[in-house]
Amino acid sequence: MATKKNSNEAVNLKGILNTLEETVEETVQSTINDTNSKTNIDTNINIDTSNDTNNKFTLKKKLDDKKEKKAFNVYMNPDLIKELDKISKKSGYSRNELINLMCEYCVKNLELI
């Protein structure tokens, strides 16, 4: 009876090990796929994400952008507008340009879970 119990435990352990191996393999493949998809994304040259360890939104020198754009209303907290105005004065970007750059960055780096 002890031998049968040991045999059942060995079968259970093999099943657990197989499941763990499959999970690790899937996780590694998923990580590789995520890395490949992120390296193929076109990035805006005004946004530096190369040193993204602290998740900061970094602006480079303003480039002249003459793309056609569409307007729509956005409702914001007054404190956020004040902060955008401060950043606008420091960076030389208009508030609208900053919002466009920030939205572009967020859309390209969004991870839905």
Structure keywords:
2 domains; 113 residues; Ribbon_hlx_hlx; 3 helices; mainly alpha; two-stranded antiparallel ribbon; 59% helix; plasmid; single chain
Describe the 3D structure.
This protein is mostly helical and 113 residues long. The protein has two domains: 40 residues; 71 residues, no CATH class. Helix content is 59%, strand content 4%. The protein contains three helices and two strands, in the order αββαα. It has a two-stranded antiparallel sheet. The radius of gyration is 25 Å and the shape is elongated. It starts with a helix and ends with a helix. 0% of the residues are buried.
Secondary-structure element series: HEEHH
Biggest sheet architecture: 2 strands, antiparallel
Distance between the termini: 48 Å
Total strand segments:
2
As for the number of domains, it is 2
Could you estimate the helical fraction of the residues in percent? Answer: 55-70%
Please state how the strands of the largest beta sheet are arranged side by side.
Answer: 1-2
Q: Quaternary state, please?
A: single chain
